[in-house]
Amino acid sequence: MHKKVAHPNEIHNTTTILWHILQACKGGDDVIAHSCSPHNPEMGKGGNASMVKNRSPAREANRCRKVTQIRGQVYDITDFAESHPGGAQLLALAVGRDATILFESHHIRTEIVDRVLKTLPKVDDIDKLFPDEEFPAPLDSPVYRKIQQRVRDEILAPLERTKGRAATGRGGCLLDMAAVVAFFFTSLSLYIACPSIMTGIILGLAGYWSGTGLQHTANHGGLCRSSYWNQFWGWFGSDVVIGKSSLEWRYHHTVSHHSYCNDINRDQDVYTSFPLIRLDETQPWSWYHTFQPIYTPFIWPLLYLAAQIGDFVNIFIYKASPGVEYTGITPIEVALYVFGKIFHVSITLAIPVYLHGWAKIWAPFVVYSCFGSFVLCWFFIVSHNLDGLRPHQFSHTTRNDWGRWQIETSASWGNVFWSFLSGGLNYQIEHHLFPGVAHNLYPLMQPIIKQECVNEGIQYNGFDGYFGIVPITFKMFCFLKKMSLNPSKTK
Ligand SMILES: [Zn+2]
């Protein structure tokens, strides 16, 4: 169960230039494939701090049980999988690692889940299973606790009374969900009936919208009240609509990126884009980085291709994303990946080719995959890649406070209109503080978070309004430019 994760450096010799291009095709929220700096063996150990280290007879004897650790206590969660309110797939992320950050950041009603935690069997009779979590935990952050309490009192409680919304913050996205699904089926029908560059672009937009407004919130467990429907829409919106494995996504995005946002050693989204894209001053510089502000947008369209290769390699060969072992993976999840891939290829390629012939389909298909990838990468990269959002630029206080860390490594942009069109991902600060709630609550949270940032002297990064995407994109290119400079000449 706990075999060693193949470190990305170990496979480096067999990688190719193309492989690096594929890995680097995304510098934002959802980097996919294996990569690591060949020059720095410390890179790419994301999630290792929270994973099982040593084998022992006692641990071997317990390997058939699913265990997790929260705040230094090991729990047996084998029998809890089916009754976990958030669903078995989200609970699986906690298996075999210290899940303190996942647990505290994805449950807004801490006292309720604490009561449930007390009912789980404790594992005290074996030696230490897990290394201690080195990263700050959410509930140790005074500002996070304060914001969380205000969100509960000022948003969730009134909505529960007036609209009957869940006190957990989950669900209530029916309208948003229906719009995404309707747009997808409309654009898919157009694409199949009349394949062209234009219908390829429209289907690509539907893929982008599904990736943000459907799969992202569902795979975080916030789209619907029902965990069954979250799992279904998470799979459909990702595996079927955009051809990206939701299984792989949950480990790399939720375990690695969300827990350790922008950390050079733990957040895959920073180190897997290297060596092609340099997003941190601690990464070695090469001559071609000079041109990264120009070539980066041309790499974004390759995300789709990278996902196809990366998912297969991660799931079937390494059983891990870089640094994050799939310790809780189940045969059902793997079967859903395979079935989703067959479904996806059938509707986007096989059926259209059967109806119209390859000559008429290849160009619309390429446009679909590239255009959706381009928009996804663009809207994700601006969220965490601006000057001032790198951890080494933070104060000692921020580096030791999970809430401050999440706020200062993220940037929000736009308004409610853009929230509808981006599944709330434009409210990235709000999303990183409360990843498990419905995305249409983020606009309501923003004033509270901004106010507390002013009170606490925390930098709230972002640009409001309909055209907020323009200045934040400009600022992102300025950051790419800054990272493109030769450090030996700028010192
Ligand atoms: Zn997320």
TrEMBL record:
GO cellular component, as recorded: membrane
SMART domains referenced in this protein's UniProt entry, alphabetically: Cyt-b5 (SM01117)
Listed GO biological process terms: long-chain fatty acid biosynthetic process; unsaturated fatty acid biosynthetic process
Where is the stretch described as Disordered? 39-61
Q: Which domain of life is it from?
A: Eukaryota
Q: Transmembrane residues, as ranges? A: 173-206, 294-313, 334-355, 361-382
Keywords, A to Z, come to:
Membrane, Oxidoreductase, Transmembrane, Transmembrane helix
- Give the Gene Ontology MF terms in alphabetical order: oxidoreductase activity, acting on paired donors, with oxidation of a pair of donors resulting in the reduction of molecular oxygen to two molecules of water
Q: Which InterPro entries match?
A: Cyt_B5-like_heme/steroid-bd, Cyt_B5-like_heme/steroid_sf, FA_desaturase_dom, Fatty_acid_desaturase
Pfam entry (one): FA_desaturase
- What sequence ranges are listed for the domain Cytochrome b5 heme-binding? 70-127
Signal peptide start and end residues: none
User: By what name is this protein known?
Assistant: Cytochrome b5 heme-binding domain-containing protein
Look up and give the organism this protein is from: Micromonas commoda (strain RCC299 / NOUM17 / CCMP2709)
